[in-house]
Task: structure prediction
Amino acid sequence: MMTAEGKNMVPIDRGWAWAILVANFIVVFLIIGCTSSFGLFFAEFMTEFQAPASSITIALSIQTIVFSISSLFALNIGRSFASNRTYVILGGLFACSAYLVSAVIQDVSYLILSLGVLFGIAYGFSYGPALVELGRYFHKKRGIATSLGNMGVSCGSLVFPPVIRLLLDSYGLRGALVVIGGILLNLCVAGALMRPIAFYEDQGKDSKAKQEDGIWSTKTEMYGTADIKDEEVYRSTIKNRASSQQGIPKNEYEQNIDANDKVNSSSSCLGNVKTVLSSSKAGVKNMCKKVIDFKVLRNALFRMWIPVCFLAIIGSVQIVIFIPPHARDLHIADRDITLLV
Result:
């Protein structure tokens, strides 16, 4: 739990929270803008590899599956392994790698690896953690912050199509893929801005520890042990006092102490093993509860929200992707197709 002092140090609805908003805008702008404009690349892939549309849509289907799995990992299981900042930075690296690999492939089937697996991981690692981090930094102003952050969807959908069209006309398909891969590296910059909440909690603990240093030093002076700085010196002092009081020879007393230490160390080792086993079992149970926790389904609004999101998303992406190739079949100019996307 975060202390009261740590809570006061966290810039909720102020300060660095606005930097988190900018980072979230960048993530949404790049990821959604690039995804919604993929239809332009879709038509170019069909022309470059002389492949049917079905062979390319397989990669997009794999991308959706990988996105769902990677989002589940980053937002549930992986929270104990890394922070949201780490996942967003990894997402930027995966996104750049996906487009660089797509730029050098010689067969359309490799799109399953590049745009299917790699970009699916990038999508899942970047989009969800960025929204979660935004919600942690905004409480009272969360509504306006979420609205401003989601403006990246509209801005990305407006900016990316003409930029991709310009790159395709200037550098061709492979050159445009390389440039877009470099642009997606800015996800790492956005991830670097996402300072975890634990940073402020650690600062609160450090300041509290500094304040308590004077209290502990006063107590040592009170008990007359301030001059004992080394644990071995303190231990030998206690041994000498006990042997002089009980009349036991020093060597015999040290042997008894060593024997007791061995017994205590062996028992402590066994206790540590039992503690580790029990904690590992408890950790697995808690992880399963977090991943397979269906208590949220008790909320009626959430149950209504699931089919609404399903029906809204199931066809939106497909329309954007298939418009450019269909428009090209209708002999519409490439510059006019950009306006359709």
